[in-house]
Design goal:
Bound molecules: ligand LLP
CATH class of the largest domain: Alpha Beta
Distance between the termini: 57 Å
Function: Specifically catalyzes the decarboxylation of meso-diaminopimelate (meso-DAP) to L-lysine.
Oligomer: single chain
Number of domains: 2
Largest sheet: 9 strands, mixed
CATH topology of the largest domain: TIM Barrel
Subunit structure: Homodimer.
EC number: 4.1.1.20
InterPro entries: Ala_racemase/Decarboxylase_C (IPR009006), DAP_deCOOHase_LysA (IPR002986), De-COase2_C (IPR022643), De-COase2_CS (IPR022657), De-COase2_N (IPR022644), Orn/DAP/Arg_de-COase (IPR000183), PLP-binding_barrel (IPR029066)
Protein name: Diaminopimelate decarboxylase
Length: 434
């Protein structure tokens, strides 16, 4: 049984009912299960055990400090992509030597802060960035470690175009042959180019794109070794899949994907390399749900509409990527079973409904034409698999405050981010009327 399940008709998050969480903290709210977070991290550690990597949780997927702290306390390092994420990582207690800093546009300020703090390494995306790091590092009297992010021109057909990053047409990484030349040529005296990094997209559904990319990396690493240039770290990114319980979704479980990748990395391991992985979604997506409430039911010309109090401002993935999130009322009389089992309930008695938010855009929906039990105003609706890229991509569009975040551990709940109020929305504005 997972940590989200129905017991005698009531949706539970570990030992608490979703209704109790909503009563205590209101809706919309992102609700995380601490046990599921620990299990998510554990699954990754297990999947890649054969290469014993540093698991750097990708902060962008769920940057809440309490979530980061929980994962850090259980051994995770962190993958950051901005000065803000770096500061979160440090505040959550991550040792700098377990932090990797990625991203195509690192500013001087961000690089300086990260070098001063002593992060493990940067994942570098261009020659211009390499020059900048070399200059700053020299100025600070340091020599910093870095990995070149290689663009292997390996694209995964199943990954959404907006989140596929391994192809030659994207902005990511340094073309393979070019990266090899940079390392072979040397000449940046204040940096130690000690690693190779690839990240191919998010989510991938198979290990095969990584297996192809590793093949190319391995050939490159061996040519470099023959020329006396030693690489010590191999970072195989993130993008490992999770269940969205969608009717069409087919993917290989992360445990198998990780094992296949780890197996393919054994040659590197035999030559003494160290490894980094940067999973986000596969750790947190299935550890969080979005709890919202039906405001109104409405009849359109020819379709039913459920207007809930969460929209594209709360969860943008459905409209941005056409992403499917399973959703179900938090009360389903008589039903006992895992959250994913609601997708297999008999279709009898269900009605097709558009689940939409309060935002003034046609693209503001959580689901279109979804088969759901009849709902009425006031009903609680749970949107599953929302722990990754849910709250982290929420906005204040239409001047709605962002939702609360709640962490459930056993039968205890903690508010880990309070709901935003009007004063938060205007806090940075200069009031010329005064
Ligand atoms: N490493 C790098 C270099 C990345 O760019 C990413 C994600 C990750 C690791 C972590 O990927 P994950 O394991 O979480 O899939 N907003 C989109 C996903 C964007 C991913 C961006 N980069 C979504 O909601 O699906």
């Amino acid at each position: 049984m997972s940590n989200f399940y129905y017991q005698d008709g009531t949706l539970m998050v570990e030992g608490l009912s979703a209704r109790d969480v909503a009563q205590a903290h209101g809706t919309p709210a992102y609700v995380y299960s601490a046990q599921a977070l620990r299990e998510g991290l554990g699954t990754i550690q297990k999947a890649f055990a054969a290469i014993d990597p540093l698991v750097c949780f990708s902060v962008k997927s769920c940057p809440n400090l309490s979530v980061l702290k929980l994962l850090v306390d259980h051994g995770a390092g962190l993958d950051v992509v901005s000065g803000g994420e770096l500061r979160r990582a440090l505040q959550a207690g991550a040792p700098p030597e377990k932090i990797v800093f990625a991203g195509v546009g690192k500013s001087r300020e961000e690089l300086t802060l990260a070098i001063q703090q002593g992060v493990l390494m940067f994942n570098v995306e261009s020659t211009a960035e390499l020059e900048r790091i070399n200059e700053i590092s020299g100025g600070l009297g340091r020599k910093v470690q870095l990995a070149l992010r290689v663009n292997p021109d390996v694209a995964d057909e199943t990954t959404h175009a907006k989140t596929s990053t391994g192809g030659r047409e994207t902005k990511f990484g340094i073309p393979l042959h070019h990266a090899e030349k940079i390392i072979a040529d040397g000449g940046f005296e204040h940096v130690d180019i000690c690693g190779l990094h690839v990240h191919l997209g998010s989510p991938l559904s198979e290990a095969s794109p990584y297996l192809l990319a590793i093949e190319a990396l391995e050939q490159m690493e061996q040519r470099l070794a023959a020329a006396g240039r030693e690489i010590r770290y191999i970072n195989v990114g993130g993008g490992y899949p999770v269940s969205y319980a969608s009717p069409g979704q087919s993917f290989r479980p992360v445990l198998e994907i990780g094992q296949a990748i780890a197996e393919r990395l054994q040659g590197f391991r035999a030559r003494g390399k160290k490894f980094v992985v940067e999973p986000g979604r596969s750790v947190v997506a299935n550890a969080g749900l979005l709890l919202c409430q039906v405001e109104y039911m409405k009849q359109g010309w020819d379709h039913k509409i459920a207007i809930v109090n969460a929209g594209m401002n709360t969860l943008i993935r459905p409209t941005l990527y056409g992403a499917f999130h399973l959703m179900w009322p938090a009360q389903h009389d008589g039903f006992t079973g895992d959250w994913e089992a609601v997708a297999r309930l008999p279709a009898q008695g269900l009605e097709k409904v558009d689940v939409v938010g309060p935002i003034c855009e046609t693209g503001d929906y959580l689901a279109l034409g979804r088969s759901l039990p009849a709902m009425k105003s006031g009903d609680l609706l749970a949107v599953f698999s929302c722990g990754a890229y849910g709250m982290s991509m929420a906005s204040n569009y239409n001047s709605h405050g962002r939702p609360a975040e709640v962490l459930v551990d056993g039968s205890e709940m903690r508010l880990i981010r309070r709901r935003e109020v009007y004063e938060d929305l205007v806090a940075f504005e200069v009031d010329l009327l005064k």
